[in-house]
Amino acid sequence: MEGVKEPLTPTRASYHHGDLRRTLLETALRLIGERGPEGFSLREAAREVSVSPAAAYRHFADKPALLAALAADGHGRLASEMERAAARVSPSAPAPARAVLALAAIGQAYVDFAVRNPSFFRVMFGPAMRSEGFIPGCGVAGRDAYQVLGDTLDQLVASGAVPADRRPGAEVAVWSSVHGLATLLVDGALPLSPRQRGTALRVVARHVLLALGCEEALVPPAPEMGRGIHPPHHAAGVDARRKR
């Protein structure tokens, strides 16, 4: 997992200068992967790292506080990955094309983060989201994921790739589309290979950009979908109907 430090060996002697807090977060993340966010208690997390519940409570008031801290950490990681993805877009490309590529890049980073870090993703957009939401200043450049998206959309307008009258509210449409794809992948409802995920994301990006009024010359061509883009149960149903 990018940016995650190596887990500590759970011995009492290793806990100093805030190490216990970090280890509790890492342990909670592992337990979420095994049992889901509701499948463990703060006391159990403390027991997993061989400390008393009282030691854990010195760092987190309760389990919701632990999950909120994980959500904040995840949002910071997500925003940073999106920022780095946008920064990798070639500066030599014309401004409109660069803005289009940046939008595709941050969408790819969002989906990749979700697939690589399903436990983080579930906590970030689960009950902890209600207490924390997006975390101002959580990314490397002081932005959260929503602000990264907003700035990228502003660049689309400033470059002339998207008409200004399509800008209001565009964050909701774009975020919903990419987040929906990420959720389907994380939950296994759309089990795709890495190559198929890339194809699906290009389809989403193309539809979003066209809906925003982007010039078709700037929009990546429609990829070959292929039958593999469908969930297996759906594809099986299609095959059965075709045989009739």
Helix/strand layout:
Elements: H1 19-35, H2 42-48, H3 53-57, H4 63-87, H5 95-116, H6 118-124, H7 127-132, H8 145-158, H9 170-186, H10 194-211, H11 232-243
Structure description:
With 244 residues, the chain is mainly alpha-helical. The chain has 2 domains: 12-60, Homeodomain-like (Arc Repressor Mutant, subunit A), CATH 1.10.10.60; 74-243, Orthogonal Bundle (Tetracycline Repressor, domain 2), CATH 1.10.357. The protein contains 11 helices and no strands. It has helices spanning 19-35, 42-48, 53-57, 63-87, 95-116, 118-124, 127-132, 145-158, 170-186, 194-211, 232-243. Helix 1 (19-35) crosses helix 6 (118-124) and helix 5 (95-116) runs parallel beside helix 9. The chain is elongated. The termini are far apart.
Query: What's the domain count?
Result: 2
CATH topology of the largest domain: Tetracycline Repressor, domain 2
What class do helices, strands and sheet pairing give?
mainly alpha
> What is the alpha-carbon Rg in Å?
21 Å
The whole-number mean of residue pLDDT values reads 83
Q: Terminal Cα separation, in Å?
A: 47 Å
| DSSP helix fraction | 55-70%
Task: Show unreliable segments.
Answer: 1-14, 235-244
Task: Give a quick summary of the entry.
The protein is an all-alpha fold and 244 residues long.
